[in-house]
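To the team - magnesium ion complex, inputs and output below.
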Amino acid sequence: MSQQRSSIQVILIDMDNTLADFEKSAKEKYESKGFIWPDRTDFEFSDDTNLRPIITAKGFFENLDPIPGAIDAVKEMESLGFVVFFCTSPLTQYLHCVPEKYTWIERHFGKEWVKRIIVAKDKTMVIGDYLIDDKPNPEKGVLTPVWKHILFHQEYNKSLNRQRITDWCDWKKIIFQEEEEEESEYWDKLSESIKYENYSVDTRCSCSPGQKAWCICYSGR
Ligand SMILES: [Mg+2]
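Output:
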């Protein structure tokens, strides 16, 4: 049962290397064939002809392990009243990749959660409050995104100075901090927009104890 939140907050969550451990499985299979796994300093794989057959093979995506803590984190988000959608960009060679992503979600979350999958090559086309994604630059797309990007930590994005979740057990701290900052910015803008003499916006006004309501206070005579 979801808790009540003051407004709907939609969290979009990427799948590969955010929820599902693509990297671990790809590396194991790659090395099992006698290849040396390259240092991943870039998000994009180069045209690695040894890797391509591994990740396009039947069964690769549906058998990825969840990243530790990911499943519990998503369920906790829902229990706290957030609305979660999975937002995933499939391989262009989609034959196995796309259906297996659906299978993966059903296997780890249940059938109902399959309705929460959004397949989008360009995530700027998707509406939400936050996008948790290991990709360094998901904001590059046709539109200016409405969501705020929160990085999911991976080796290849570690140099980026951006808000990030390093471990799924930290998700609440990061999202709540973001919510507080957004709220603070909102009140600052509201205060700025109200310029009447002797009036001010007071977010801690005792007129509405315990609520995040706002009050325009008159301080004149
Ligand atoms: Mg990813």
